[in-house]
Design goal:
single chain; 326 residues; alpha/beta; seven-stranded mixed sheet; six-stranded parallel sheet; 10 helices; 15 strands; 27% helix; oxidoreductase
Length: 326
């Protein structure tokens, strides 16, 4: 099969389409012939040699995909050859075929094309497993999403709004803020021209928001703490602003705050299967009802993976970037 290979750690130019061996499936896995995969921030870190894949996972980039099942392991009962699916994978999405544990496979949601379904698994599992399963974000609460126009942001806006949460977002351009508003965000803050802490306080009568979904990390930590209401929860899923900082702990104690963090990739197969099953039960019906739509900015063929990575690293996109198999 063909796969996009990281020839050596470095810039986008190190991604090259090469002929490689087909993956072999285990008894509890399925083989998916991939139609599309979607880019995630972790793919660029992997390419730079800063994010090693967990033991046993594919060395090729790509944490999600959509396609058609081509083979099933002997212990797999739910899926059959020919099923159209999307999946959360530990790696190997940038290839024509991938072996996936059966518990990480999802049906394509009704009303969504097989190609666009590739935009859902990673964002849906990330958002549901963090601010819902762990932070228990619930109807009537408020949520601040940093990077509202990202793949995760555009999905989280739609899901939270659908579930009766008032959504605040930060983004870096008027175009991105307009896109967030169209998806359902109530308060849109340009972090380049506004102090998000002051705006959050102003919009909440001085209280702050209940939950924050943060991909910035260090440089935002104190400001995030300052933006939270009593019993507020900060969930960190990325470190674009660094991993070290100094904070004043007094606010955590005074307002009973919780700081949480987790990733998806290094979880066990059983844990991923649980998250995927919760997503199918709680999120898929909203997609089927047309309340959450895929936000796809641009599609590239596998051979232009380097160009796709350049676009992602420019941060000009809104939503997801897809790669299409040969």
């Amino acid at each position: 099969m063909k796969a996009v290979v990281i020839t050596s750690p470095g810039g986008p130019e190190v991604l090259q389409l090469k002929e490689v061996d087909d993956p072999q499936i285990k008894d509890d896995e399925v083989l998916i012939r991939i139609l599309a995969t979607a880019l995630n921030g972790a793919d660029t870190l992997l390419r730079m040699g800063r994010y090693d894949p967990p033991k046993g996972d594919s060395l090729y980039p790509g944490l999600e995909c959509s396609g058609t099942i081509e083979a099933v392991g002997k212990n797999v009962s739910r899926w059959k050859i020919g099923d159209q699916v999307c999946a959360l994978v530990g790696g190997g999405g940038y290839a024509e075929k991938v072996a996936v544990p059966a518990g990480q496979v999802l049906p394509v949601p009704p009303g969504v094309s097989l190609q666009d379904a590739a935009a859902f698994p990673e964002v849906a599992c990330t958002v549901w497993s963090t601010i819902f399963m762990i932070s228990h974000l619930s109807k009537g609460e408020t949520l601040l999403i940093h990077g509202g126009s990202s793949g995760i942001g555009t999905f989280a806006i739609q899901l939270a709004t659908y579930l009766g949460v008032k959504v605040f977002v930060t983004a870096g351009s008027e175009e991105k803020l307009a896109a967030c508003k169209n998806l359902g965000a109530s308060v849109c803050i340009n972090y380049k021209t506004e102090d998000f802490v002051a705006r959050v306080k102003e919009e909440t009568g001085g209280k702050g928001v209940d939950v924050i979904l943060d991909n910035i990390g260090g440089s935002y930590l104190q400001r995030n703490i300052d933006s939270l209401n009593f019993d507020g929860r900060l969930f960190i899923i990325g470190f674009m602003g660094g991993i070290k900082t100094e904070i004043n702990l007094a606010g955590l104690l005074a307002r009973r705050l919780t700081v949480q963090a987790s990733g998806l990739r290094n979880r066990s197969r059983d844990n991923k299967a649980l998250i995927v099953s919760e997503v199918e039960k709680n999120v898929w019906p909203a997609i089927a009802a047309g309340k959450i739509n895929p936000v796809v900015y641009k599609c590239f063929p596998f051979a232009e993976a380097a160009e796709a990575h350049r676009l992602m690293e420019s941060s000009k996109h809104i939503g997801k970037i897809l790669l299409l198999a040969p």
